[in-house]
Amino acid sequence: METTLFEKYIKNTERTDPIKCVGKITKVQGLLIESHGPQAIIGEICRIIAPKGAGIIRAEVVGLRNETVQLMAYDETDGIEIGDKVIALGSRLEVAVSDKLLGRVLDAFGNPIDEKGDVSSACMYPALANAPDPLKRKRITERITTGVRAIDGLLAAGKGQRLGIFSGSGVGKSTLLGMIARNTTADVNVVALIGERGREVNDFIEKDLGKEGLARSVIVVTPGNAPPLSRLRGAYVATAIAEYFRDQGKDVMLLFDSVTRFARAMGEIGIAAGEPPAKRGLPPRTFDSMQKLLERSGTSDKGSITGFYTILVDGDDMDEPVADTVRGILDGHIILSRDLAEKYHYPAIDVLQSISRLSNDVSGYVTKEAAGIIRRNMAVYAKNEKLINVGAYHHGSNAEIDKAIEKHQEIEQFLIQNIDEPSTLEETLNIMSDITGIEIPEEEMTDNNEKLAVAASQFRKKEIKFKSKEKESEVFAENSAMALNSVASLFSNLG
Ligand SMILES: Nc1ncnc2c1ncn2[C@@H]1O[C@H](COP(=O)(O)OP(=O)(O)OP(=O)(O)O)[C@@H](O)[C@H]1O
Ligand SMILES: [Mg+2]
167 CB under 6 A from ligand 1? Predict the structure, then answer.
């Protein structure tokens, strides 16, 4: 009995740190702040008491050298003076998580900035965490619907898949994320607006997300004018919130805008801390951090985080280092084309350049055939577009090209979609069925993988059904067997 009593006190005493760790500012140079003490660990949160500045400035320990502590601030550093006190808080960055976060807008610390009340919680998640154990990750076998026809139909994504949205500036990355957030079938959206323009935040919430979208979303905002550490930590906090919902068994959609700004923030910090720049002015650690951050989404043994990450590609150069690194890490890329945007073809997804590495695993057998036929028509049209446009192609010279021209308009209409025009999986697949003439069975119009598996096994016993005999000859210009073979090889190449 007595031991239990004592144990309680011993534990409490062990947890308490009786020495307040205080240091003094010795140097402030650009982003980097140095102090003599306090005793702290890397990543520990400190408070700088700056009576002549903002009062309290939040900072994080980024380096240690003998008695010197190197700090970087989350807030503006104006008004810090030599000799100002630095207090170590004894913990690394954590975020309060609970279902109260739904419908809320938060800053880089996970504190609300929307004046809708408190979100405190007894449950705290570390902002910096490791990715789930690779052996415990569930395989990705179920489809997630984004509500965007070009994606759901031709670039099917799985629950827990991570895709990049790449384009130059102003081609529609953020708008596409908004469309997905509003229309997806995911349980929860976590939207990370990292380093983007401040004015876009309200636009995103009111225009793109709308009321119904916001109700099941958590938004973390660190605008471009926030200090780089704040931008960086916003990315980690958003990911930690997504991890919390995944741990609750939910299918989470993490919409991240943008990885490029995250990398730039990382670069600014690295250079301020004296790291040598490597690729395009970014220190090597940037690429390592990017990899760690992106690995945290995906499936775990409990739920899934499907990640859509936007990447700004300078001058549409897909080989620039950030784009190249991200492409290597993710399970697919969606490329937005300026040419399409200029033609007011929105969302400006360049389907033939884009790829979802898991679409084969998550879509039904007949759906894949239909998608293959549409892609093939698009490829034939794209290859001959110049000839067709200058009138150098004569109808009847090639049955395949004739078919591609005939189907072109219908396919364009399928791909063009208004921001506020949701499309359920059933609607998307029905249009594909109309375009190709192939009957897509109802069992395939589902996110549910078990139903898909049943549909696939049933399919093998049957043949593909066409809506009518005329449709059959319409779809396969020459020889249906040949066309199907080429579709199969197209898919195996893509896979
Ligand atoms: N689906 C759409 N429908 C109509 N217009 C669109 C659509 N998508 C984008 N636009 C137009 O393109 C503009 C830029 O879009 P958006 O801000 O989404 O691009 P971005 O790629 O995120 O740009 P940045 O790289 O500067 O962040 C919008 O203001 C809008 O005029
Ligand atoms: Mg944008």
Answer: yes
